[in-house]
Amino acid sequence: MARAAGPGPGPGLGRLLLLLRLLLLGGLLLRGGGAAAAAAAGAEPCQAPRQWEGRTVSYEHGTGRNTRAAVSYDGPNQRLRILEERKALIPCKKFFEYILLYKDAVMFQIEQVTKLCSKIALTEPWDPYDIPANSTYEDQYYIGGPGDEIMVQEWSDRKPARRLESWVGVYTVKECYPVQETYTKNYSVTTSTRFFDLQLGIADPSVFTPPSTCQKAQPRKMKDEC
User: Fold this and answer.
1) Please, how many CA atoms are within 13 Å of residue 210, restricted to the half-sphere of its CB?
2) Helices 33-41 and 11-31, interaxial angle, to 10°?
3) CB contact at 8 A, 140 and 39
4) Which of 118, 122, 188, 195 lies at a CB distance of 3.0 to 4.6 Å from 109, suitable for a disulfide?
5) Is 3 exposed, middle or buried (0-12, 13-18, 19+ CB in 10 A)?
6) Distance between CA atoms of 181 and 76, rounded to whole angstroms?
7) Listing from the earlier edge strand, what are the strands of the sheet with 79-84?
8) pLDDT tens, position by position, 47-95
9) pLDDT in tens, 110-146
C-alpha cells in the first residue's frame, strides 16, 4: 500500500526555506564575479610610480606606425627621455632620441647617428603617466590566464555629461604600474601606448642632459626619412 503523503510545509516554514535559498544564492555570487564587483564598487585611483625606466610601443592610428622606444620617466621634475629602438635595418629611416623638459617648455631631438640636434618649443602641458584623481572607474580584470595572470584596473576621463572618453588608462592593481594608455580625438583613436619591462628609479639622471651638439641646435624638427 502506498504511503500517504504528509502535510506540506506551513507558511512560516516556506518563508524560512525561501530565505535560506536566497542566502545561499547570494553567497555563491559573492564567491564568483560578485566578489570582484563588490571590491571594485569602492575603487579609487591608485598612485602610479613617479620615476621609472622601461620600454614602450606607441601606435599612431592615423599613420599605422609602431614606434618602439626605451623610456626614462621623471614625474617630479617633469622630464621625459625617449630613445627610439632599432629593430631592423630600414633604408632611409632615421632614429632619434628625444629629451622633453616640460618645466623649460623645450624638447631636444637628436639624430642617433650624426648627433644633429633640433631644439623645439613644447606647447602641450605636462601630462604625467598616472590616474587623475577625478577619473572614472571602468573595469577590473585579469591579463593573462590561470597561473600567469595580473589584475588590472581600467580608468577613463569619461563623465556622466559626456558618454565618450578622450583618455583610457590601464594600470596594475598591485604597485599601480601603467600597462596601456589610449587617447582619442573627434571620436577616433589617435595613439595607443603599451608599457613593459618597467624598473623603478632613474639609473643615470644624465640621460636628461642634451649632448653638446645641442648648443648649436636648429629650430625645426627633423624628418625621420631621407
Assistant:
1) 24
2) 80
3) yes
4) 118
5) exposed
6) 20
7) 117-121, 106-111, 96-101, 79-84, 65-74, 51-60, 188-200, 178-185, 167-172, 148-156, 136-145
8) 999 999 999 999 999 888 899 999 999 999 999 999 999 876 677 788 9
9) 999 999 999 999 999 999 999 999 999 999 999 999 9
Joined grid coordinates for residue 13: 516554514
Please state the separation of Cα 184 from the chain's center in Å. Answer: 14
Q: Are strands 96-101 and 178-185 parallel, antiparallel or unpaired?
A: unpaired
How far is the C-alpha of 122 from the C-alpha of 100, rounded, in Å?
A: 8
- Determine the pLDDT at residue 164: 77
Half-sphere exposure for 154 (CA within 13 Å, toward CB): 12
Distance, in Å, from the CA atom of 61 to the CA atom of 70, rounded to the nearest integer, reads: 21
pLDDT at residue number 198: 98
Q: Rounded to an integer, what is the distance from CA 89 to the centroid of its chain? A: 30
Retrieve residue 4's grid coordinates: 500517504
Q: Which residue has the cell 627621455?
A: 81
For residues 171 and 113, give the distance between their C-alpha atoms in angstroms, rounded to a whole number: 35
The model's pTM: 0.78
**Spatial distance between the Cα atoms of 96 and 176, rounded to a whole number of angstroms:** 29
DSSP state of 197: E
* Residue 191 CB coordination number (10 Å): 15
Identify the H or E element spanning 37. helix 33-41
Going by C-alpha positions, the residue among 59, 36, 49, 51 that lies closest to residue 137 is: 36
Alpha-carbon 146 to chain mean position: 22
Q: What is the DSSP letter of 88?
A: S
